[in-house]
Design a protein that fits this description.
The chain is mainly α. The chain has one domain. α1 crosses α2.
Length: 94
Amino acid sequence: MTGPITCTICGESGLSSVGYGAKYQHNILNCVPKMIAERDRLKELLDDLIKAFDSGNLEMNSPEIDPGDPEIPPHPWHEEWLSMVRAVLGEARK
């Protein structure tokens, strides 16, 4: 058991978790105001990541993207993920 933890979106603290990748009790609706406030910044960040990847300045399995836990290697990006992000960004520009 790890814990207590803090939500990285809304800042709610004292949440309990049962380990890496585990689910914890948290009402995600508490995060909505923060997500709405940050949506333009998130779009810019995702757009910059896609541009960096497309230009060859960022590798698919780059530790720059996900330095993560030193004991767990970075997860490679997948074309499916890139395709989904491009679609979402395309919809957001409409």
